[in-house]
Amino acid sequence: MGAQGALGNNFRITVPAAGLTQRTVLFASRAMRKNAFLLLSILVCGFVVTGCVSTVDGRKKAANPFVVKDKLVRVYDRPVVTCWEAVKAVLGANGVIIHEDVMQSTITARVDTRTVLVKTEAVDPKMTRVTTQVRTKWGNSDLDLAGELDKQIALRLATGALPVGAK
Asked: Quick one: 35 and 99 in the same domain?
């Protein structure tokens, strides 16, 4: 009967039997091959879309690696200690500070459902670079919240008080 057979366009393998006759084994029907291809395609897309990104504190985190810009960098004409205190005040007013790493000069906080990482580092004794990175729980970046926090940090450094809109 050939490879076409009574079942249509199925893939068949002829296997020698223990006796004198050979038997035909159905390897995979068209629907099975279609489902297997669909499952393989979903798995490959899953591996391609997910990945790891670097955080401002030097760690890696599972997130969407295809986001082009995920952090804001600003340089302020203030010493590191002043910027550190302003960052702590703004993050404390907007959310909950989870972790402070004095050695790496990073602060991690939760604002709403977002994870906020802020790094302060000295450019020179009177200039400080503040890097703000905000991630959602699914790993995407939130530049709107990063910009809002960065603006509040700048206002705190300029006036010495928290803005009225802060929580």
From this structure: no
Alpha carbons 45 and 27: distance in angstroms, whole number: 26
> Kind and range of the H or E element at 145?
helix 143-159
In a shared domain, residues 34 and 114: no
The answer for residues whose C-beta is within 8 angstroms of residue 79's C-beta and 6 or more apart is 122, 125, 126, 128
Q: Are 28 and 16 a contacting pair, CB within 8 Å?
A: no
| Angstrom distance (rounded) from CA 167 to CA 151 | 14
Tens digits of per-residue pLDDT, 73-108? 999 999 999 999 999 999 999 999 999 998 889 999
pLDDT tier, 57 (very low <50, low <70, confident <90, very high otherwise): confident
Residue 132 exposure: Cα atoms within 13 Å on the Cβ side: 27
Instruction: Verify that 151 and 79 share a domain, yes or no.
Output: yes
The token duo for 89 is 């005040």
User: Are 23 and 101 part of one and the same domain?
Assistant: no
Answer whether residue 106 is part of any domain.
Answer: yes
